[in-house]
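User: Just a sanity check before I run the rest of the batch. Below are the structure tokens for the first item. I only need the designed sequence back.
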């Protein structure tokens, strides 16, 4: 059941990504690492703000922000391994191929971790996912400030993967609560 839920959320995110790709092209290729980190930060801070205030004046809820974090996390992996560009330098079909590659890697890691952690995420609060995502973003900022020169820490890619995982958990839990 859990793997099917993981796969369903990733399919939902892929569908939205593909639609946005149609509308905007791969405009995200222009994002430098720090800008992408700030975009992740904005989304996670909005989730935290809505969790605390219990009200959205814009009318959009928390779950769409978790979906956005998943997609931006995958974009982060693409950018990390392919670099950023000064112009949109890939066609939509190549963007989808890259999306699928990194989404698959994140999904497989999530399944392996879920096995090892015995679904501990199900006993957690959604607000903890938010806080863990914000912590991962802060770690990414520090690694960026260090120019990637860490002593013992996992790299930026591992933090993107964790952000994706926690956001998938959040999307699933919020769907179950509705």
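Assistant: Here's the designed sequence for the first item:
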């Amino acid at each position: 059941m859990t793997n099917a839920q993981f796969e369903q959320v990733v399919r939902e995110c892929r569908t939205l990504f593909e639609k946005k790709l149609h509308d905007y092209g791969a405009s995200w290729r222009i994002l430098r690492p720090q800008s992408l980190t700030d975009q992740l930060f904005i989304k996670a801070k909005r989730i935290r703000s809505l969790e605390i205030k219990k009200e959205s004046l814009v009318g959009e809820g928390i779950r769409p922000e978790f979906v956005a974090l998943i997609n931006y996390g995958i974009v982060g992996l693409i950018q990390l391994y392919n670099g950023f560009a000064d112009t949109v330098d890939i066609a939509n079909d190549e963007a989808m191929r890259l999306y699928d590659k990194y989404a698959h890697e994140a999904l497989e890691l999530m399944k392996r971790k879920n096995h090892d952690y015995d679904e501990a995420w199900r006993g957690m609060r959604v607000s903890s996912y938010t806080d863990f995502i914000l912590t991962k973003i802060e770690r990414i900022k520090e690694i960026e400030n260090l120019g990637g020169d860490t002593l013992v820490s996992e790299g930026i890619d591992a933090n993107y993967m964790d952000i994706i995982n926690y956001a998938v958990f959040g999307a699933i839990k919020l769907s179950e609560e509705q």
